[in-house]
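Consider the following input, taken from an annotated entry for Acetyl-CoA C-acyltransferase (Labedella gwakjiensis).
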Amino acid sequence: MREAFIVDAVRTPSGRGKPGGALSGIHPVDLHAHVLRALVDRSGIDAAELDDVISGAVGQVGEQSGNTARWAVLAAGFPESVPAVTIDRQCGSSQQALHFAAQGIQSGAYDLVIASGVESMSRVPIGSQTAGADPFGSGVAERYPGGLVPQGVSAELIAARWTLSRESLDAFAAESHARASAATRNGRFAREIVAVSTSERTVDRDETIREGTTIEGLAALRPAFAQESWTARFPQIDWSITAGNSSPLSDGASAVLLASEDAVERLGLTARARVHSVAVAGDDPVTMLMGILPATRKVLDRAGLSIDDIDAFEVNEAFAPVVLAWLAETGADPALVNVNGGATAIGHPLGASGGRLMATLLNVLEQRGGRFGLQTMCEAGGLANATIIERLEN
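Applying the prediction step yields:
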């Protein structure tokens, strides 16, 4: 089987995903096009060489509808001959895009491909694609007669099951902001972030990071999901998920360039890593956020590695208890997980987050001299992707 190599990975800064956020004035197609152009310019390739652009987006409605990836390719100025497709595996959409891109190279269908993603949560609010509609149908309702729950309630169920206190969740969130703040100050995001210029300013750092965040400050926030309908159904929950120990609504885009060995040699590229192993897993759609456990086990088994062989982890911080429960079950070293902070601070622009995590993971491995990195992300519906990459010495 052929190898799939990662040549480069870029992302925009994360903007607050609300009106008035730093990136809220930019159409998602244009935001996406920005990272596509930056990736091609940095690598020095001719965009006409691309076999495909595979992109993730969750809210595929309104300004992100109609195969938004195709419009981003055209907005980026790529030749009309470059194809593009938009996929949806919820929060893991751009991570899945990378899996499809790598698999295409490994199979011989591709030589050069971009995996990317975008989400403008300020312009296409979360839930827009299902507003006023029943996305489940009668079969799902019959299988789960108690009914499915919002992701925030799922996070509460996880906190209750793993006996995670409100203080531990807030401490985790404060640490995420502290790590991300330090990474920003020390320039550790410089290689992955491509600045975005608007008519008002140049955005070159994540707007969602709050330096100086404290446990005491987070403790003052009210639980976000303690509505009467849920408290009556789940009396075992202490209700501790807040806006502070969850990922913020965010705008952003990301892109990763992958190539075959032949393309690397023919185009004079430098491969920074190889895609070692990939996996996807399904799990309980009620406590939907813990698919990262079977996904992690599956990808490690597939790679022939143990948790102790991994030098850096990126585990998406959709909600603090997801990562804390994953740590409790895997035994991973917390010092190696989300070294430069996670989505609690950096943000979670849904369709773009998989590519964002990959850009960060690649840079962390290079900054620390690590060999293997593992990325995993929970996804709505009880799904999760996991990816292991191997850094290459150049």
